[in-house]
Design goal:
Layout lengths: L6 E5 L3 H13 L3 E5 L2 H10 L4 E5 L7 H10 L8 E5 L4 H9 L4 E4 L4 H15 L7 E4 L2 E4 L4 E4 L2 E3 L3 H12 L7 H9 L7 H15 L8 E4 L3 E4 L1
Parallel strand pairs: 1-2, 1-3, 3-4, 4-5
Antiparallel strand pairs: 6-7, 7-8, 8-9, 10-11
């Protein structure tokens, strides 16, 4: 799994429906995992936290609505976007799904094109750099499609790792990222890299950002990690 790819978990017990979802998500450039029961989904989310969950309401064992409720009451998964799929089209069911914490509710049968658009909408909110958005912070602009970064009137030359680091910081200005969280997001969850490597690349990013003057926008939070602004 590339660290640039949003990671989507599909939770669907109908094999044909699951295959269609996984195929189309992968065609959109997403990294995809799947589960066919609620228990398996909860285990996967704990082991490899996704960037978004496409969740069927009706599942064997733990229902989709219960999974949604559990994820939304936990601080570590509260912000995880959930798109709920259901054959229940009644307004009362839609309201129940949204009140349980689902970020979007799609009634079966659905248009795959529409669902992909809804997935991108949710990711634009939580991981804007991965869906082609231009990010700005003070006088810094990052174009995620062309991989160009400018500060003021000056173009900046960043290596791929520094670019991904800056993307991560600019998606959530002010958030403090630990070294371990940056390793997961920037290098990928399946790659072992020493945490000191993060410090080296932060140093390179700082140097590039301040090459033409200006204050250092990156903040070191002692004992916690790094933040932008």
């Amino acid at each position: 799994m590339s660290a640039d790819q949003p990671h989507v978990l599909v939770v669907e017990d109908e094999a044909a429906q699951r295959e269609v979802l996984c195929y189309n998500l992968e065609a959109e450039g997403f990294s995809v995992a799947y589960a066919d029961t609620g228990d398996a989904a909860l285990q996967l989310i704990a082991e490899t936290p996704p960037d978004l969950v496409v969740l069927d309401w009706m599942l064997p064992g733990v229902s989709g609505i219960e999974i949604c409720r559990r994820l939304k009451i936990r601080p570590e998964t509260r912000a995880l976007p959930i798109i709920m799929l259901s054959a229940r089209g009644e307004e009362v069911d839609r309201v129940r799904g949204l009140e349980t914490g689902a970020d979007d509710y799609v009634v079966k049968p659905f248009s795959v094109v529409e669902l992909m658009a809804r997935v991108r909408t949710q990711l634009r909110r939580t991981r804007p750099a991965t869906v082609g958005e231009t990010l700005t912070f003070d006088d810094i602009a990052l174009d995620s499609e062309t991989h160009r970064v400018t500060r003021g009137d000056h173009p900046l030359k960043l290596g791929p790792t520094e670019f991904r680091l800056l993307s991560t910081f600019m998606e959530r200005p002010g958030r403090v990222w630990s070294r371990e969280q940056l390793l997961d997001r920037v290098w990928g969850r399946d790659i072992y890299v020493d945490t000191r490597t993060v410090d080296v690349h932060i140093g390179r990013l700082r140097k590039a950002l301040c090459l033409h003057g200006g204050t250092d926008p990156l903040r070191t939070v002692r004992g916690a990690g790094y933040a932008l602004g």
